[in-house]
Every structure is written in structure tokens, then in C-alpha cells.
Amino acid sequence: MSSNGEIEIGDLKIDNEDDVVNPWSVTSASQEGVDYDKLIKRFGSSKIDSELIQRWEKVTGKPVHHLLRRGLFFSHRDVHTILNLVEQGKSFYLYTGRGPSSGSMHIGHLIPFIFTKWIQDIFNVPLVIQMTDDEKFLWKDLTVEETTRLALENAKDIIALGFDVEKTFIFSDYTYMGQNSEFYRNISRIQKCVTFNQVKGIFGFGDSDVIGKIAFPAIQAAPCLSTSFPDIFGTAKVPCLIPCAIDQDPYFRMTRDVAPRLGFSKPALLHSTFIPALQGANTKMSASDTHTAIFLTDTPKQIKNKVECLDKNLQSFFPVRRLKQNA
Ligand code: TRP
């Protein structure tokens, strides 16, 4: 901690009043949840404002999805560039992913996928979905065999959303790495562009983190390079748009730095907020605490019980808000 009460996580200086938002943890300083405007400033992304929404509607000739209209997707990087491409009749592809850490996904996990499906439908573009079974093996107390199985289970939840089967490629890292050497070649190229100091800066890795973690960001970055998918794009360098929750941004800040050095455009991003935990807004829904989340495999009775608990929590949450507004 520095003398002015700031702490440093990676390259971000945050004061004690700040929320913690990174790929491994999300907690807010206030009961009212994460301060997303502050996050935009800290991360250096751009706010999704009414001007961008109007332009999107003009370019597509269709009203935007309610997740955009209602601000669940609130931040972006370079989405204007993607709209420029569409106006010029050029194409792009979508990339999103899932770290399979639980047998069933919960409703918070679905947000980026529901939104990605809508984008795929209106632009009729290819989509790649990365299942990072390797990431969850490295970060969680799970075996390789377990994360391999969870990736398959989660892929079923994702497929159920109804993506275009002709235009969607879902792959697990363990499986695809052995099938396609262009993917691993791009991982290697990215690894050569990033120093240990840089990943320490971006992700806050320390000297005692296992080397698998330190090398992993290149694996999440490689699908941003279209040549990782020769069966879909051949050798063409196609621009990439990533819908994801804002906690994944560190991976793509790193990728946006590397991509131009490898002759690719920087991936564009659409960031979502988090669905709060049922217990209150200061953490996100989490698969590791089953009481905080509604799972896709929950029975109607389980959901009813959880929502009744939520009602009680809301009653204790809202008076605080009202007091603040009156103050
Ligand atoms: N790291 C993500 C997770 O833990 C999974 C992921 C891989 C991802 N590639 C992605 C998420 C691209 C969003 C976009 O869930």
C-alpha cells in the first residue's frame, strides 16, 4: 500500500473505496454494487452512450436488444470501427467463451451468450466459442478429467440457446490444441510478444504463481486472431468482436496491444455488467456458492426458495438506497 492509501493490483492503482474487478474476483466497496462509470475510467474503455445506440440502430435498421437498451452492456472498445465495416459491406466475426468451473451454468453466465446470439442473428456472422478447460484446471481445485467433462456439460447449456449451427464453432482448448496447429502457432506468437513483467502488470501475477497461469493469457488471446481457425477463415485476417463481462477485459487489453504487432486489427469489445448475487449487490452470482445463483439445472422449487430469499434481501437492501437519495 502506498502512502496515500492506494493499493496496486496489476497496473491499476485503486484506492480503498474502489471495487475489485478482475477475472478472478468481483467485489464492490458499496452495498449498491459496482460503480461501472468509475470502472470505465479505470480501464480506459468507452461508455455505450445514446449516440452509439442510435448509430447501431441506423446501421442495422433494427431496434437494439434490450440488454443494450437497458445498459446491461454498458462499455465498449472500438465498436464504431465494427459499424464502419458493416457500412462498407465488410465482415467480422464474434468470439466469446466460458471457463467450465461447474456442471451447470447459472443465469449470470448466460448474459454474454444471449447477447452474442442476437448479434450473430442480425449480422449473420461466424462465431467461435472457447471453452477454457485448461484455465479452470489451473485456477480451481479440479482435475484435467473433471474440467474436460465440465466443458462438455457447459457446451450443452450454450448450444441450447440456439446459435446458427452453420456459423458457430465451439471448441475446448484441450481438444482443439491437438487438432489444429495454427491455434498453437498463434499462441506461441503471442507468448513471444508479452514479457513476465507485462502479465504481472496486467493480471497481478506473483513470483509464486504456477507457470501455467502465466502462460495462459496467450491461450485466451489467440482466438482473437482469425488465422487460429483455418477451417473457417483460411489465411484471411478478419476483424473480431468480443461480447464479454467486463472482468475479462484484462485479457483483451493485452491482446489489443499485441494484435497490431502481429499484423491483425485490435479486437473490438462489448462489456456487460454482472448479475448480482442473490444475497446482495456487492458480489456477482457465483457458481462456487450455490446459494448466490440460479442454475439452469435448478428445479422450479429450488428457484422458488432462492427467489423468496432474494425478496427478503431486497427488503433490507432498498431502505439504504432510499435514505441515501433523501440525504
Ligand atoms: N476466461 C473466461 C471464463 O473464465 C472464459 C473465456 C475464454 C472467455 N475466452 C473468452 C470469456 C472470451 C469471454 C470472451 O469464463
TrEMBL record:
Enzyme class at the top of the EC tree: ligase
One GO term (biological process): tryptophanyl-tRNA aminoacylation
Signal peptide per UniProt: none
Subcellular location field: Cytoplasm
A single MF term (Gene Ontology): ATP binding
Taxonomic superkingdom: Eukaryota
GO cellular component: cytoplasm
Keyword terms: Aminoacyl-tRNA synthetase, ATP-binding, Cytoplasm, Ligase, Nucleotide-binding, Protein biosynthesis
CDD domains: TrpRS_core
EC number from the UniProt entry: 6.1.1.2
Pfam assignment, any one: tRNA-synt_1b
Listed PANTHER family: TRYPTOPHAN--TRNA LIGASE, CYTOPLASMIC, TRYPTOPHANYL-TRNA SYNTHETASE
Similarity-based family: Belongs to the class-I aminoacyl-tRNA synthetase family.
Name the record gives this protein: Tryptophan--tRNA ligase, cytoplasmic
Organism for this UniProt entry: Nesidiocoris tenuis
